Each structure stands twice: as C-alpha cells, then as structure tokens.
Amino acid sequence: MSYGPPLSEGARKLLLLGSGELGKEVVLEAQRLGVETVAVDRYANAPAMQVAHRSHVIDMLDPERLRGLILQEKPDLIVPEIEAIATGTLVELEQEGFKVVPTARAARLTMDREGIRRLAAETLRLPTASYRFADSLEEMRAAVLELGLPCVVKPIMSSSGKGQSVCRSEAEIESCWNYAMEGGRAKKKRVIVEGFVRFESEITLLTVRSVSGTAFCPPIGHVQQDGDYIESWQPHAMSEAQLREAERIALAITEALGGWGLYGVELFLTEDGVLFSEVSPRPHDTGMVTMATQDLSEFALHVRAILGLPIPGVRLLSPGASRTLKAARDSRSFAVEGLEQALAVPSAQVRVFGKPETRKGRRMAVALASGPDAESARAAARQAAECLSIRYDG
Ligand SMILES: Nc1ncnc2c1ncn2[C@@H]1O[C@H](COP(=O)(O)OP(=O)(O)OP(=O)(O)O)[C@@H](O)[C@H]1O
Ligand SMILES: NCC(=O)N[C@@H]1O[C@H](COP(=O)([O-])[O-])[C@@H](O)[C@H]1O
Ligand SMILES: [Mg+2]
C-alpha cells in the first residue's frame, strides 16, 4: 500500500463523522501515518476539528446534507465517531463504493439500542439483561410491570447516559418516560426498558479486527455515574473463566458486525455469568486509559486496522487508570484550572479536550496515570483529577 502526502492528489483521506475527544485522538493517530483528515460535527471548533486538516459543520442526521458532503469530499474512509448519524445514507454510500468503518451495517445496527440488542440477544443468543421496547407511556408501564422493579429506562438513541434513569417504583414510571423523551437524540419516541442487573463489576473488552485477525486488549474495568463513565482502569482483575466467556461474547458480536476496526464491547460481570450490554464500533470512552497503558492506544489500533495495516499484537506496558473532569453547569466563558498540581502527581498525564462550551455533566478533560497495579494507578488518576477544576467566568 502507498499513498501521497496529505492535501495532494494521491493523499489517503479519512472523514470523521463526530469530532469529540475520541475523534481528536483518532485524527492525531491518522496524521502520524501521514493521512489527510477531515473532521465533521454539528458544532464549530469541536475537539477533532482543532487538529484535523479541515472541518465541516453539518447536521449529520440530515441524509441530504450528509450525502452532499461525502460526495464533495470523496474520502477513502468514512469513520463514524458518534451514533447519531443518518446511517441509512451510509448504507447507500457503501453500496455506491464508499468505505464505511467498520461497516455501514455496524454503524446502523449500533445507532439504536434495538438493532444491536436484537442481533445480540435474539440472533446470536448472547446473554443480556431482560428487556422490552416501548413507544408510549402506556406501553412502557406494561413493560415495567412485566420486567419487575427496579429497571433501567433508556431512549432508543442516546449515549453517555443521556435520558437514562433507574425506575424504582410505579410512581416513577412517568418521570422516567419524560426524562427519556428529553434526553433522546432523535425524534423517535421509543425506549428500551431493561431489568436492573446487579453486577459485581463491568468491563469494556476492546476488540480489534484487522488484516492480522482479531485481538483483544486486556479488560478495562470502569465505574459509571448517571449512565456515564467517571473512572476506568486496566487490567481489570477477573477469573480465567470470566475472561474466556467475555472473549467468546466479544468475538461473536464483532464477527457478526464484521469489517476492520476497533470495537468496545461492554459487559457486566455477575454472579450468574457474563452479560453482553452494548458495543461501540469505534474507540470507547473508557478506553482512553490505553493512552497510559498500551504500546498502541485504542486510537492507534483503530487507525491501523482501518488502513489495512498489520497489528501483530497488543502489549500492555503498565497497569493504568483514567478519571474524568466534568462540568457542573453550562457556560461559554470558562477555563480549566489546576494543571500544575495535576501534573505534579507522579505518572499523571492530562488530556484537555478543548470543547468550546461547558454543559452540566459534559466531559471536558481526563486525567491518566500508570502504576505498578491498577489500584495504585486509580489512586494516582483520582489524585490528578481532583486537582483539576473549571472556573466559570460567565
Ligand atoms: N440493565 C442495567 N442494569 C444495571 N445497570 C445498567 C443497566 N444498563 C445500563 N446500566 C448502567 O448504566 C451505564 C450506561 O449504560 P449504557 O452503556 O447502556 O448507556 P450509554 O448511554 O450507551 O452509555 P455510553 O454511550 O457511554 O456507552 C452502564 O455502563 C451501567 O453502569
Ligand atoms: N460515550 C460516548 C462518548 O464518550 N463519545 C465521545 O463524546 C463526544 C461527544 O461529547 P459531547 O456530548 O460533550 O459533545 C463524542 O464525539 C465522542 O468523542
Ligand atoms: Mg455504554
């Protein structure tokens, strides 16, 4: 394989749909290999736009706008970075000869919780939480009563816990429905109701499919608050049997989705076995820890895989951990403070994403640390993150 320099006729061009903190690292890794990068999102100055060769601001859920942009740019690789994209258009464009990462079908099925859950639970018969889908408050009430309380309610299309809540009593059914309606990204009034899983721990198993075959990264443990991750570490301690089962599930779902690229397979470890939760056909937020632990981060692995380059193996250089910094309120005038203190913590690193605005609960930066074991790395990452804060000037 060969290609010319970026911005030349013979350049290899990667177009990223979604330009957040994960895409920013994908762009940086692509640039290391001399690839031309184009970043797209619904707002200006998104993190990946700040490091890409060029950027565009469009509504990626609008099929016409999406098609128009892709025909204009004619990228070699279309790389979805978020779920909320007109994935039907990606399926069409793939049929017309464009390359969608890892496949347009994977983007379409994982865009809404129904597609991927039905594939995993009904087609592949993988173990999952019990679930029902509902299109109205009345249907949701019936689903909750059938599954039993407590249960978890999520909009069919959302991520990072947006619109997600735990329903603990019949009196809460209506407020959970309303919360899901406010938090969903598409206009669809559909929710998934899941039986509440009392897990011992939860992990992300990063699984990379490349010309060299399928490789698993050591498991990443994480803690979530309000449906969004606040802390992750690698490796997560689990039994041989649990790891074998986790890899079996990850292999089944990634083989079914196909293509080349890195997947983040989310799993619950319970007393009764390992359950599949969901999968991202792209680098995972909890996987940012790999920037402090692996010889090739999840972003480097994704880029290598999608370019068709070999991945002879994944090496864990050190245990490590990550801890997020989130905004407390909405602001357009703010500053991230405390880098001097955070970086004085031995082994600590910080990634400030550079998002132009804060929103309540929005992830703005992450602290990373390594250590002799995951526990000490967690302590260092926490210490570094606690030094960081956001000053609001408006
Ligand atoms: N059925 C369940 N039982 C118990 N906890 C759950 C259940 N479903 C989700 N959770 C908790 O909420 C978290 C977020 O859920 P999920 O991954 O489905 O949401 P998401 O919005 O897709 O998040 P992300 O985009 O960050 O992956 C899970 O990691 C887990 O901690
Ligand atoms: N769990 C998925 C996830 O972490 N996705 C990451 O968050 C960005 C959106 O952030 P924003 O909502 O702050 O704009 C996405 O673009 C992606 O990088
Ligand atoms: Mg998740």
UniProtKB/TrEMBL annotation:
A single GO molecular-function term is:
ATP binding
* Gene Ontology cellular-component terms listed: cytosol
Top-level EC class as recorded in UniProt: ligase
Going by the UniProt record, its keywords in alphabetical order are: ATP-binding, Ligase, Magnesium, Metal-binding, Nucleotide-binding, Purine biosynthesis, Transferase
- UniProt entry tagged with the keyword Lyase: no
Per UniProt, ATP binds at 113, 154, 159-164, 194-197, 202
Sites binding N(1)-(5-phospho-beta-D-ribosyl)glycinamide sit at 21-22, 81, 285, 355, 362-363
Q: Give the record's pathway.
A: Purine metabolism; IMP biosynthesis via de novo pathway; N(2)-formyl-N(1)-(5-phospho-D-ribosyl)glycinamide from N(1)-(5-phospho-D-ribosyl)glycinamide (formate route): step 1/1
Q: What is its EC number?
A: 6.3.1.21
User: Source organism's superkingdom?
Assistant: Bacteria
The residues listed in the UniProt record as binding Mg(2+), with positions renumbered to this chain, are 266, 278
Q: Does the keyword Protein biosynthesis apply?
A: no
Instruction: Enumerate the Pfam families for this protein.
Output: ATP-grasp, PurT_C, RS_preATP-grasp-like
**For the ATP-grasp domain, which residue ranges apply?**
118-307
Q: Which GO terms describe its biological process?
A: 'de novo' IMP biosynthetic process
Catalytically driven reaction(s): N(1)-(5-phospho-beta-D-ribosyl)glycinamide + formate + ATP = N(2)-formyl-N(1)-(5-phospho-beta-D-ribosyl)glycinamide + ADP + phosphate + H(+)
Family, per entry: Belongs to the PurK/PurT family.
Oligomeric and partner information: Homodimer.
The protein's role, per its UniProt record? Involved in the de novo purine biosynthesis. Catalyzes the transfer of formate to 5-phospho-ribosyl-glycinamide (GAR), producing 5-phospho-ribosyl-N-formylglycinamide (FGAR). Formate is provided by PurU via hydrolysis of 10-formyl-tetrahydrofolate.
Read off the PANTHER family from this record: FORMATE-DEPENDENT PHOSPHORIBOSYLGLYCINAMIDE FORMYLTRANSFERASE
Q: What is this protein called?
A: Formate-dependent phosphoribosylglycinamide formyltransferase
| Species name | Paenibacillus albicereus
Q: Which gene encodes it?
A: purT
